[in-house]
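Good morning,

Attaching, inline, the backbone tokens for the sequence recovery test we're adding to the shared suite. The designed sequence is right after.
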């Protein structure tokens, strides 16, 4: 995980010096908080890992990763097209993205970390793949990232694909973490005091990324 973040940061540093202005800290903060916190992917993976073990759940995780990559890539292409055809709407998209992130920050304050017992048999590759098509968290994540944080990559197809792959690897890391330690995470954050403290920190991190986006417009 640490090695991946180092490689990703190094690649983005290269893109920055190629003229693609990227706020690495804000981008990674938003991505990490959004991808690793509770949602359909992480909670279902935690329940699967707890009930069936990591190995039996792996096809489901691979399906999620495949769907996640395709959704992120589609969002990247869609955002690039919008930027090229409607360049004057970028400030509006940025402000909308900031507003959505502030909404996430508010929602984060009341997040639950409880795992459901899930299905009676392991979910397979196809269900993991289809979950991404119906997962608004992933779709909005992709549109927000590429319409706000990574607008500088719009004219570089290789950068768009590489970033989508990078976010997918982050997602797979989150799935693995919740599958292996989901029960422990749920137990540690079961008390109201701990849960509120963690949620407050995560909400503040999201608020920081929203403020960074608003400041970038001016």
């Amino acid at each position: 995980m640490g090695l991946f973040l180092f490689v990703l940061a190094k690649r983005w540093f290269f893109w920055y010096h190629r003229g693609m202005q990227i706020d690495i800290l804000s981008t990674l903060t938003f991505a990490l908080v959004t991808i690793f916190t509770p949602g359909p992917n992480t909670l279902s993976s935690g329940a699967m890992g707890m009930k069936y073990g990591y190995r039996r759940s792996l096809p489901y995780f691979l399906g999620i990763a495949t769907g996640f990559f395709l959704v992120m890539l589609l969002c990247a292409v869609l955002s690039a097209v919008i930027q090229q055809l409607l360049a004057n709407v970028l400030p509006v998209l940025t402000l909308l993205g900031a507003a959505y992130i502030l909404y996430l920050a508010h929602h984060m304050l009341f997040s639950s970390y409880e795992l459901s017992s899930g299905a009676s048999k392991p979910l397979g590759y196809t269900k993991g793949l289809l979950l991404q098509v119906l997962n608004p968290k992933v779709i909005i994540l992709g549109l927000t990232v590429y319409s706000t944080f990574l607008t500088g990559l719009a004219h570089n197809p290789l950068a768009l694909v590489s970033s989508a792959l990078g976010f997918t690897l982050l997602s797979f890391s989150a799935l693995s973490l919740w599958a292996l330690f989901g029960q422990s995470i749920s137990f540690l954050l079961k008390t109201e005091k701990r849960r509120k403290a963690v949620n407050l920190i995560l909400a503040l991190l999201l608020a920081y990324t929203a403020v960074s986006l608003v400041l970038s417009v001016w």
